[in-house]
Design goal:
About 35% of the residues lie in helices and about 20% in strands.
Length: about 150
């Protein structure tokens, strides 16, 4: 929660803190944020999915897919492995920026330095510290945008 408060996102309807992925997944069609939805809430097929909050608004339906948490975590792990491949270069840039901004991004630097060489599991702390948002265009066209502005296609 402290990391979220420090982030201080100013975009409308973005900082809800209800769930780990709230305000972090953006629709590639309309630019709205994804929200969690419960499908089959009263039967044995119950599951939670994430989809565009405006998927069915108005005349044009968004074509972006719904995602389950397992898929979102898989995208993050893939993106993080790509991102961390440039760890030394990125850390050096962050440290330079951090000095100019009086230590405001120290959490990102510390998280990057502490990470393993290969990431094979979802890390909620790394998610909050490193990810700005995820943009979904289709299941095969997903971009993770990190807080430094770098965008990784996964």
């Amino acid at each position: 929660v402290q990391m979220l408060m420090k982030a201080g996102n100013t975009e409308k309807n973005r900082n809800s803190c209800v769930k780990v992925f709230s305000g972090k997944i953006k629709c590639g069609d309309c630019g709205s944020w994804y929200g969690s939805k419960v499908w089959h809430s009263n039967d044995k097929y119950r599951r939670v999915v994430w989809q565009c909050n405006h998927k069915f608004d108005g005349g044009k339906k968004c074509t972006t897919p719904h995602l389950d948490e397992k898929a979102i975590k898989k995208y993050f792990i893939r993106a993080l492995n790509i991102f961390c491949g440039e760890r030394e270069k990125i850390t050096a840039v962050f440290e330079e920026i951090n000095q100019m901004q009086s230590g405001k991004i120290q959490g990102m630097i510390d998280t990057l330095k502490e990470m393993a060489e290969v990431i094979d599991r979802f890390d909620e702390e790394a998610w909050y510290a490193l990810v700005d948002y995820v943009t979904v265009y289709s299941r095969d066209n997903v971009y993770v945008t990190f807080r430094n502005g770098e965008e990784v296609k996964v």
